[in-house]
Amino acid sequence: MTNLPEKQSKWKDLAQVIFSEMEERRAQHPKATFVELETAIDQRLAKLRTKTSQSTARRENYPK
Length: 64
Known about the structure:
Blueprint: H1 4-28, H2 34-58
Helix pairs in contact: 1-2
């Protein structure tokens, strides 16, 4: 089983990927509306929510 600091680090890494993707998307679409940005963020966060739920349900340390 992974220790807590390692587990937290993996989740932070996953969140950082999402933040980086959003920065890249913003650079590629500088005139995107707030709704378009919000939709893109929601799509990425939905993936994170799914992985979090699956990990919790299976009591794993990190989603695969």
